[in-house]
Amino acid sequence: MVADQAKAWGVKMPARQRFVPTQLATLVAAAPTGDEWVFEVKYDGYRIEALVHEGTARLFTRRGKDWTRRFPAVAQRLARLPVESATLDGELVALDRSGRSKFVLLQQSLDATRRQRLTFFVFDLLRLDGEDLRALPLDERRRRLLRMLRRAGATRSGAVRVGQRLRGNGAALLRTACRRGLEGIIAKQRDAAYRSRRSRAWVKVKCGHRQEMVVIGFTPPKGSRVGIGSLLLGVHKRDTLRYAGRVGSGMDEDMLGRLLRRLTRITRKTSPLPGTPSRLPIAVRWVQPRVVVEVSFTEWTRDGRLRHPVFQGVREDKPAGDVHRENPR
Fold first, then answer.
1. Which residue range forms the structural domain that includes residue 312?
2. Catalytic site residue 42?
3. Which residues are CB-neighbours of 233 under 8 A, at least 6 positions away?
């Protein structure tokens, strides 16, 4: 798929420069301890893999979709890196005035009338000038990444920066991150190779509960509200789509209107769930389970529903079939 996209762009992409499936972190309940671990900020954005080749750059999601045209300024900055070729792994974010990444700001960046300045935080270097670095320890890959970005003057400011490492005890770092309003921290084994799968060599600890959910329906608005009353949500559990409650807060009028237009195009007469859940609203318009959103919440109830959910944004980078309930290990 990636090779076809590159061909459509008219860019020659040799086999050694094609998309590498990303390594994913495992959710855990507490930060690990020990000198073998290093810690990084958990950014609230889109995971992006950048392929740089002979003065051009392409941006791909974690599922290999070409998003270069969505973020041309970042691609142009990456294309100026002083390398013949490179594969970079990182997170594309929008920062608020305090320097915190905010997913809602990143969502607004997709709207030309509400454009935000974006930053690509690079935290791993997978290939450089024809050399595959994935088997090297993380510390060595980072050393080469820093050297490359320093030559480009792109370590602390600008559209492309090196991902921040945190110093200190994991538990204390998590408390500090949560006090600052960050999403959490990532812990990585400093001597581990890069593996294109979910791994316990990378683990994530969150400050609160956040979960990607599948939209399965919506209700009409009430009172002065426009567009949509609430979204009905589902999540896969053992490969079966289960009802997880509904969310109505966290959406402004612009988002409500955009969601209504999008969901109206994929309505269906029956529920996409295998059974009929209890305590459903009377007026429900069911939709094809295709749209993925991110929701924050306080906890899961005993019957598998979200308590106090708040809408965070639409996830364009993950297909609905990959959305499973995430439980810390």
1. 209-322
2. yes
3. 213, 214, 215, 216, 243, 244, 245, 246, 247, 293, 295, 306, 309
Catalytic residue among 7, 12, 42, 318: 42
| Same structural domain, 274 and 213 | yes
85 and 61 share one domain: yes
83 plus 34 within the same structural domain: yes
User: What's the pLDDT at 2?
Assistant: 41
**Model confidence over 77-121: pLDDT tens digits?**
999 999 999 999 999 999 988 888 988 888 877 765 455 689 999
Q: What is the pLDDT of residues 267-318, one digit of tens each?
A: 999 999 988 777 777 789 999 999 999 999 989 998 899 999 999 999 988 8
198 with 221, same domain: the answer is no
Nearest residue to 289 (alpha-carbon basis) of 303, 273, 276: 273
Q: Tally helices (H) and strands (E) across the chain.
A: 6, 20
pLDDT on residue 22: 95
Q: Under 8 Å CB-to-CB from 203, ≥6 apart: which residues? A: 25, 26, 27, 28, 32, 186, 187, 188
Q: How many separate domains does the chain show?
A: 2
Where a domain ends, among 175, 206, 237?
A: 206
Shared domain for 200 and 82, answered yes or no, is: yes
pTM: 0.82
Same domain, 33 and 156: yes
Residue 56 and residue 195 in one domain:
yes
Write the pLDDT tens digit of every residue in 13-47.
555 568 999 999 999 999 999 999 999 999 999 99
